[in-house]
Amino acid sequence: MNFESLNWNILDRLRGTFLEGKPVRRAYWNGTEDLAQYDQTFGERIGWKWDALVRELKLRRWNPPADVDHLIDWGCGSGVAGRRVLAAFPSLRSLTVFDHSPHAVGFAAAQAAARFPWIRIVQASAAPSLKDSMVVLSHVWNELPLPIAHELLAQLSNARVILWVEPGTHALARKLQAVREEFIERFDVVAPCTHHARCPLLASGHDRDWCHHFAPPPALVFTDGNWVRFARRAGVDLRSLPYSCLAMVARPSGACPAPPLPWSRTLGRADVGKTHATLHVCSNGCIRSVGLEKRAAPQAHATLKRDPLAVLGLIHEPDEFGAPVRLILHDAKSMNPQSSAPG
Ligand SMILES: C[S@@+](CC[C@H](N)C(=O)[O-])C[C@H]1O[C@@H](n2cnc3c(N)ncnc32)[C@H](O)[C@@H]1O
After folding, report:
1. Which of 183, 242, 315, 318 is the S-S candidate for 322 at Cβ 3.0 to 4.6 Å?
2. Residues of the chain with CATH 3.40.50.150
3. pTM higher than the cut 0.85
4. What per-residue confidence (pLDDT) applies to 308?
């Protein structure tokens, strides 16, 4: 991204529309330049959230089912989500881009063709059937009028794989929690949950909580003057990338739900003080806050102090005091808090 080439008339207008967060009746992309401006700025920032989800899927050793090689990017915009997923999973051989803006469809298709010339690309001018497909949805829910949102959910219930990323707001995260609840009979959850029990944050008493995470931005955000100036001018905090997500795979008919995994997923950001850190975690149907004392777990405390987002989950191997003894780090390492080095 080159700060000097940014067009702030376009970027301010687009950002204003996104911040409204309301259903849109008319496409707001006025031409290719709008999409090019978005793609290298706000779109790239969304790409970092997709990087976080993809990293988690890889860490969980998840791949698309062998007989699914077609991807649909629904509400594609500039196509950043579809491209991130194509880059991550080379078994995908074709892509349909769909948006109610023909400018978006054309831009997303051209970008994907340039990056993945071996992929067959379909430009859809009407909502495609999602039956048996792998679908990506990104930052689209807020913009859909109710009848279209209902139709989309009905279509999604026939999909094979759903990968969905939205901003980490209370309303959108809880929407994804509700979709999970509705689909759990027919789908296995791949991320962010480690279980198929009812989402504990939907239980009474948790109305003010929401299942969200923070994506780490790439290091260049702090060193590249273009990004530093962009963040200042746009008024966005590039260090804070809250997102909510849902990755689900249709369960073969008659199959049992996958068993819960033996670890808990962290939620939000760890609270890290001078001598103590608290992680909020979700596991088989319950939410807990887990404390780590610096004295007992110096390495883990130091890791969290450096980066409160470093921990993806906890493996509970209770010792005689019932304490968790292993942290799963986002960079695919695991760490014994009592030892002095990652394992
Ligand atoms: C905030 S943008 C996100 C674009 C892209 N998915 C991303 O993550 O960068 C929302 C997109 O949804 C599209 N959209 C809004 N309403 C739509 C509808 N009813 N049908 C299809 N696409 C729609 C918009 O045109 C826009 O491209």
Report:
1. 318
2. 3-250
3. yes
4. 87
